[in-house]
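During the first year of the project, the team set up a workflow for recording each protein of interest as an amino acid sequence followed immediately by a discrete structure-token representation. This format lets reviewers and collaborators read both layers of information side by side without switching files. As required by the reporting guidelines, we include two representative entries from the current panel. The first entry is reproduced here exactly as it appears in our internal archive.
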Amino acid sequence: MSAFAYPLESACFDEAFDSGGAPRPHYAELLEALAGQGELRERVDRRVAASGLTFGEGVPIAVDPVPRLIEAAEWETLEPGLLQRARALNAFVADAYGPQRIFDADVVPRRLLESSDGYEPVMHGLLENGGPPATVAGLDLIRDEEGSFRVLEDNLRMPSGACYAFAVREVVAPEIQAGLAPRPLDGYLEEMRAALRGAAPEGRSEPRVVILSDGPENGAWYEHERYGRELGLPVVTPDQLEASRGRLFARRGREREQVDVIYRRLDEDRLCDPQGNLTDLGELLLPALRSGRLRCANAFGTGLADDKLTHAYVERMVGFYLGEEPLLRSVPSFDLSDERDRARAMERLDQLAIKPRGGFGGHGVTIMPRATEPERRRAIGLLRRRPEQFIAQETIEISSHPTVVGDGLQPRRIDLRPFVVSRTDGEAAMGGGLTRFAQGAGEMVVNSSQGGGCKDTWVVENPER
């Protein structure tokens, strides 16, 4: 890669360059090294192809070779906020399926529970003794125009990407000829292993843990397989399971073993259909869950925390459950089921983002300042007919990062998904996480399911000033 001119975007914070176009101190060494590295993108692409790193229907995932750097001092201030938020969200999910204190106290409106697609009523009373309901939380962070991290969305149902972070590190780091040493990621796997074993029912000192997957048709199959290899766990599909007398068994060849913990990675998320009838999955798993002989890591019903309306109340949850001030702020959201919030949002709708409460992967989101007139009219029509199915959120000009385009670097918008593992005795975060980038200039949606790619994320020691 030859020396380059980098066109800053004036509307947003750039991770690597200050507003005057000078490299930020912790990026200076990396940028200098990149200027002398030719065919970097091609070498990384070859590594991606050789590794089998795919997302979706066997398509190699786009990996940009320029890592995102986070100074160690900044990470040390960010990490406690991640742990605090995961702790509060787990407390909320456990409460929602138990005493429901936060609704009785009117800190969060009960209509959230009553109207959420993520609520699973048959799980009520089943999350009290199984440890944190969400063993893994993935929090989507963005950096705002001032350079501050904020939480854009919370993912507790089945957050993906942790193993992609390992894979991206493996294909990028060997190609970067700079004197930087990112913090290793391998401690995360030990935390996962301990958390999954710790989720077992009492009395199971050597629990049988399996990863429950749809199989190769699942978009995150690469991750399921890799988790299996790294953790030494079998990956099974529902047709390999059978229920008997309040227990769950897995068949692998001629062997049949009782399962104590499932790490749930299925696309199917419901134990009951909208009419309250058990799904096939519910028929299979619910008897063992009710008997207490089976635990589920990332329990059914954790999708309640992924509801975009829940996001609007997480800062209140921190105060209610933990008695603390939030260390990490949310992107402000409007509860459109609330008459006052709706009136405030409608006054400045042209400045906001409209999101369906149950959406994921960026689908159905309308960023009003960037939408076409037909897109805007459609969003407003949907909002007026069913306001309770949407939230409005402040539009943030998310940060940009140097990304290889052609033979130079161009700014592309990014987010960060750090991962928090929760156990009964505490939480731990992966050192960095997975950075995702939008491939088009100025695009704001970074999700892999909509064409976004991945960057390695390095937590690096602070340079000497």
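The second entry, processed by the same pipeline in the following quarter, appears below.
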Amino acid sequence: MSPPPDSPSRGILLILAATMIFSIADTIAKFLTVELAAVQINWTRYLVSSIMALAISLRSPGHPFRAVHPKTQLVRGLCVTCSSLLFVMAISVIPLAEAASIGFVAPLVVTILSIPLLGEVVGIRRWAAVGAGLLGVLIVLRPGSDAFQLQSLFALAGACTWALALVLTRKMAGTMERGATTMLWSSLTGLTILSVMLPFHFRIPGFASLALLLLMSVLGSAGQWLVILAHRHAPASVLAPIFYIQLLWTTLGGYLVFSAVPDRWTLVGAGIIIGSGLYTAHRERVRAQGRLGHTSITR
């Protein structure tokens, strides 16, 4: 069992490091899409992730493969796999900053999905934040204009599948399901699905591409581990807003490697999405404090 949060500043620093690592991994992934298919890129990532997840699970108490909710674990693993695959397909065509901006709509989709799947009640202020965030997505996508690209919808679909994975994670949070088991099941589910698809997309990578593939996979797995460590030191409500720093690193990576500069409408839309996401995180923190206060009173 993880120790209680005791060092928010350490948790924030770990998240900052994780966002930088994720941005580097995404930049490498976009670079690799010139030579390799998204399936092969993600397969390598999931292979390394599965090895890491297995090592963590074997060090944890209990049986690493025994899931309390196997069907939910499989669906979650499928959602995570689809999300990562769709994101790489998107960044193969559209700029990193645009894909990352669209991806940040996930917390807002979580708010929508939490109603039917978690039975939560969403107030008018959170609905307003969701509406503003979706408006920001439309500004980034600009459907009907010359700037619209169909691949942008891959990023949006990836954000939606990731949001569903987050909701399923929340649903299992109140049960006896262990984090190490969830990580292992998601990794192995993704590896299995992508292994079936790999023969139809496989290309022998050059030495440089192989080295970048391995580096990207190690960085992605290391970033996930830093996120796990961060949540041992600070609550999710404190850490959630820090993730938006990733857009800064991603934009910087896109500029340094691909000389891509986001246009003003992408920046405007991204700003609206981030603002609505920050407000949603604030409301989540207020609700969490309210539940904690109610619990302390009724004890």
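For the second entry, the following points were noted during internal review. Residues 1-5, 294-299 have pLDDT under 50 and may be disordered. The chain is about 75% helix and 0% strand. Both points are flagged for discussion at the upcoming steering committee meeting.
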